[in-house]
Every structure is written in C-alpha cells, then in structure tokens.
Amino acid sequence: MTSPAPRPGLHHLELWTADLAAAEPAWDWLLTALGWSAERVEGWELGRIWRHPDGSYLVLEHSDDVRGDRADRRAPGMNHVALNAGDRATLDALRAEAPAHGWRELFADHYPHAGGEDHTAWYGEDPHGLEVELVATDSAD
After folding, report:
1. Could you tell me if residue 4 is inside a domain?
2. Total structural domains within the chain
3. Is residue 117 part of a domain?
4. Quick check: is 2 in a domain?
5. E strand or H helix that includes residue 28
6. Checking DSSP bridges between strand 131-136 and strand 81-86, what pairing results, if any?
7. In this structure, which long-range contacts are made by residues 74-81, counting pairs with CB atoms below 8 Å and at least 24 apart in sequence?
8. By residue range, what is the domain housing residue 92?
9. pLDDT tens, position by position, 35-84
C-alpha cells in the first residue's frame, strides 16, 4: 500500500494592505518569479490571489477594516513570510531585481547569511512594510 501524497502544509495566507494598487506590483513580480500563478476573481477588486503549484495560495487584500498605512513587523502578530527561492543563483538574481519592483532590502550588510551562517536567504520589505524572506534551499551557498 502506498502512502497518499503529502498535502501542502499551508492552505493559504492572507495579507492585508493599506493600498492594493501600490503593493500589488511588488508581490506580483516576486510571486510570479518564484513560480506562483496570478488568479483573478471577477468582481473582487479589493484583492489578488497567487497560487503555488502545490495548491497553497497567497491573498493580498485591501479592506476598510485595515488600520494604519504600514505593517509593523515588530508588533505582536506575524513578523514575515518566508518563501522558498530555489538555488543561490536564483536568490542572487531576485535580490538584484527586487528594488526595481518596489522591494527594499533589509539586513543588506549581512547578505546572504542574515539568518545565520547555515542559512542562505534574502530579506526584503514591500512598499507598506510587509517583510518577506526568500530562502535558498537547493544549495548550501
């Protein structure tokens, strides 16, 4: 008897933004570069969805219930989203292109080991302060 294929560990993640028009291009570039596919929901102008090949998805949404105009990763709640970036060459390429797509690099003076010597990653912040960590998982460095 064979075991069923493992399900993704994450079903979906919903991120709220104060300005969807400003945040969407940054997330669209990043997620599509990582192999996620954009999906439109007809009639829903306040949100966007990107689906990973494993079936999990990320939602970026504006709501009238959003308070403030920036995320605060140091406040209680979610600190950041960590995504697999593949190999180190892909990570380096994404790092080089990110500023042109609205991302501000965090911890640049410690790249690529801001998370520790045995961890290869790039950290960035979208136009509204949402932090992302891209992790190179296909090579040690």
Report:
1. no
2. 1
3. yes
4. no
5. helix 20-33
6. parallel
7. 79/131, 80/123, 80/130, 80/131, 80/132, 80/133, 81/13, 81/15, 81/130, 81/131, 81/132, 81/133
8. 12-136
9. 999 998 999 999 999 999 999 999 999 988 888 888 888 888 889 999 99
